[in-house]
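> call design_seq(struct)
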């Protein structure tokens, strides 16, 4: 059901819209967790390391898909808020056509350049072939990732955060079962993990696109509308490109950090893979709340209700607190158990690495969650250049500090880069929000 976010109590409306998004994140992360968990439990430490190593490259592709999601979502949200139905429908078809071309270009890059990227990452020889195999299968399924993200972005833009949740609940649960079937039942190893993800992402994509087509037919009839508009594409690209660049640079930064970690051997890679999967769950929850803030902001910008945005922001910060505290407590108190879920033999350097990472990073969730929520307002208003500045500051600091501190302090030096980057990036985002220039941004 479509939801107008420009009416009612701002905090209540934002929370009711965001809670299903949080559920979607949980199921989305089951995809990533299932691959690592099944690899580590049923294949071994090297398989866990291979999937974790390959996943840093898949995040580049995901960054493009996420940027496309945000680009079309912000534009559709503003059109939905101003009730411009014909342009809304044109923006949907324009998004699918344009991002389909982008997806094809990335697939060509993926098939041609994957091995070179793995070598640049200092991938250990013992996990190279499995990493390469996983990436080839993932690349083949990239259209599913792209079109699913575009479809769910449009659902969210129209105030419907529940429909994507239903698709993800079905497909991610299926992914776990198919992972186990292919890996344990058919002894397919890392290839089984990759093919399971391919099939289940395909199912969720087809269902989402079909449901979206039906939803669009239910909007007020507008007669014939353009299938493609250069002007609307320009607006989408204005939001999408900064979002893609932001996420891509984050992914590239993570690859650089991964290449530093790879120098410490397969056991440390395995421990880091388990811990970063858990960390990603927390960050994804904050990101989902930030995305909810983006849609809330975009609809209210379309309706020119700026006071509601400030009220919603206060409600969003409270939601951050409600999410951050349990995550911190879980990782500090139950870290050994949670990291051990991914391992056949949860002892030794792999376990120590995972625990060390979580203890360094998790207390700063209280900081980074504020940054992500604030960025949601900057992005939703169309002021994407503002939140890119804070993101690049965070990323640059993390990469530089990891490279500089690793030689004298070892792996602890790498972990230390996260809190510093997050803290400075948050300060920049909050300052930009407080200045209020985001109100004057135009698509």
């Amino acid at each position: 059901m479509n939801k107008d976010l420009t009416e009612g109590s701002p905090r209540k409306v934002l929370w009711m819209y965001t809670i299903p998004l949080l559920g979607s994140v949980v199921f989305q992360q089951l995809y990533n967790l299932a691959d690592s968990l099944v690899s580590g439990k049923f294949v071994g430490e090297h398989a866990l390391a291979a999937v974790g190593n390959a996943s840093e490259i898949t995040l580049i592709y995901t960054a493009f898909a996420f940027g496309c999601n945000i680009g079309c979502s912000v534009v559709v949200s503003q059109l939905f808020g101003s009730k411009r139905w014909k342009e809304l429908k044109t923006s949907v078809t324009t998004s699918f056509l344009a991002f389909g071309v982008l997806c094809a270009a990335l697939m060509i890059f993926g098939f041609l350049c994957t091995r070179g990227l793995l070598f640049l990452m200092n991938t250990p020889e013992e996990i190279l072939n499995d990493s390469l195999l996983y990436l080839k299968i993932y690349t083949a399924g990239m259209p599913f990732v792209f079109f699913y993200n575009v479809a769910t972005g449009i659902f969210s833009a129209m105030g419907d955060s529940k429909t994507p949740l239903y698709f993800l609940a079905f497909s991610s649960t299926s992914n776990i079962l198919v992972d186990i079937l292919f890996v344990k039942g058919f002894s397919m190893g890392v290839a089984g993990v990759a093919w399971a993800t391919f099939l289940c992402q395909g199912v969720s994509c087809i269902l989402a696109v079909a449901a979206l087509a039906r939803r669009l037919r239910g909007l007020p009839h507008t007669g014939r509308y353009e299938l493609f508009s250069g002007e609307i594409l320009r607006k989408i690209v204005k939001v999408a490109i900064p979002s893609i660049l932001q996420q891509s640079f984050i992914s590239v930064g993570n690859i650089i950090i991964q290449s530093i970690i790879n120098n410490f051997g397969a056991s440390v890679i395995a421990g880091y893979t388990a811990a970063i999967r858990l960390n990603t769950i927390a960050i994804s929850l904050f990101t989902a709340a930030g995305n909810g803030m983006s849609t809330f902001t975009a609809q209210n910008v379309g309706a020119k209700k700026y006071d509601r945005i400030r009220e919603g922001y206060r409600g969003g910060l409270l939601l951050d607190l409600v999410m951050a505290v349990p995550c911190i407590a879980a990782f500090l108190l139950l870290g050994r158990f949670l990291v051990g879920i991914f391992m056949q033999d949860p002892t030794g350097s792999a376990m120590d690495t995972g625990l060390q990472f979580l203890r360094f990073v998790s207390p700063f969730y209280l900081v980074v969650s504020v940054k992500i929520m604030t960025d949601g307002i900057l992005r939703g208003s169309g002021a994407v250049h503002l939140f890119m500045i804070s993101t690049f500051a965070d990323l640059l600091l993390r990469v530089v500090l990891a490279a500089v501190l690793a030689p004298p302090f070892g792996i602890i030096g790498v972990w230390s880069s996260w809190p510093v980057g997050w803290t400075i990036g948050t300060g920049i985002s909050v300052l930009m929000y407080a200045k209020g220039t985001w109100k004057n941004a135009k698509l």
